[in-house]
Amino acid sequence: MQIIDIQTFVVNIGGQNRVLVKVLTDEHLHGIGEAYCVGPDEATVATIHYFKDWLRGQDAMRIEYLWRLMYNGSRFPGGSVINAAISGIEHALWDVKAKKLGVPVYELIGGRCRDKIRVYLGVSTLDDAKRAVEELGFTAVKTGPQPPGGDTMPWGKVLREAGRKMEALRKALGDEIDIAIDPHAKIFEPARSLELAEVVQPFRPLFYEEPIRPENVEAMARLHDKLHVPLATGETSYTKYEFRDLIAAGAADILQPDLCIVGGLLEAKKIAAMAEAAYLTIAPHNPLGPVATAVATHFAASTPNFVILEYREVTAGPLRDMIIEPMKYKDGYLEIPTAPGFGIELNEKAIQKYPAKPWRRAPVIEADGGIGYI
What we know:
Elements: E1 3-12, E2 17-25, E3 30-35, H1 41-55, H2 63-73, H3 80-101, E4 116-122, H4 126-134, E5 140-143, H5 155-173, E6 178-181, H6 190-200, E7 208-209, H7 217-226, E8 231-233, H8 239-249, E9 254-255, H9 265-277, E10 281-282, H10 290-301, E11 309-311, H11 318-321, E12 329-330, E13 333-335, H12 348-351
Parallel strand pairs: 4-5, 4-11, 5-6, 7-8, 8-9, 9-10
Antiparallel strand pairs: 1-2, 2-3, 4-13, 12-13
Helix pairs in contact: 1-3, 2-3, 4-5, 5-6, 6-7, 8-9
């Protein structure tokens, strides 16, 4: 089964784009995947088409071989654009291989080790959290502990407001609902992150995500040693090689690879195996939409040390229109699909209504005019 073409679809969802990938074969089978929207989406698309010239005519069934062709063939370790492009193509290869064999993707990577996939919803306000639990049935939510405008507030006020927010959430949701918190890698100083952790600790967060910037693994490890809440990180890390450093340093309790930028599905499985041997669990970063969620569902279904998946509601607009039918959600869990491949298909006619638009992440301007972290 030879690859004859690789197509890309860039879909604007309002504020950002989504970069979707379709691999076509000479047996009239195709697979789909998603590359992370790292910002310069044109660069990711160009890289996918650059790799297309390497892959056209190759056997689509040889996924590990083709991954190495792209990764090793790039010579220099890839950053966000290279790894996003590889990830999206690799997803599509798994989808088409599973379709040819007539099985769901998870059957090719270990088979199901659970019956459904626990998910959490990101929330901003107390009302959002109550709706997620009371109306939608979620058993876990995630929120940023910093208050609106926290980038320019005195640090003492940030701590006070974070404590008030967590206290209100815990009181409203009760003890049976998990609440994860995500400072979003906006804090540079480990000492300040430790202060914030001590403020939220009494409210028993499920995990403390990206508590500092991710570049300095040793600093993350030193912070981890002082925390009394689980530290989660990994959304900005690429491939097994960077996760090896996190694991070896003892820098986390929960790893959060994003399957759309980490190097793909099999790379995430390798990372999960490394983590399992170190008694670490996996909670994939998954903020993008229905294609990424389908990929992550198959990963979660077949990964024993998976604990919970980030989930984005898909009810209307471009995220809903981009596929024929999304994963099925019910009472805090996703159903595991049984159709061959990932179990989803692009709605190519519908996504033409949402052409790509230029966008960028707005910079954070601090109180003194300096540039902070997004």
